[in-house]
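for the recovery benchmark. tokens below, seq after
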């Protein structure tokens, strides 16, 4: 099954642990970042993938 995920969804900017939106990661050069709220370390692409996956599950 294919699920369509909104391309405007800022998946790479949102901490998948606490939901904090980090505006600094809008810069695509930022590959890794640490959430200032819960201190989780994120790889941009991994974090984005988890968020897209979660959104796909929640939209089900
Ligand atoms: Zn966080």
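predicted aa per position
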């Amino acid at each position: 099954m294919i699920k369509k995920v909104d391309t405007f969804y800022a998946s790479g900017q949102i901490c998948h642990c606490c939901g904090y939106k980090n505006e600094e990661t809008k810069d695509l050069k930022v590959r890794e970042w640490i959430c200032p709220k819960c201190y989780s370390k994120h790889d941009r692409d991994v974090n984005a993938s988890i968020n897209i996956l979660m959104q796909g599950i929640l939209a089900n």
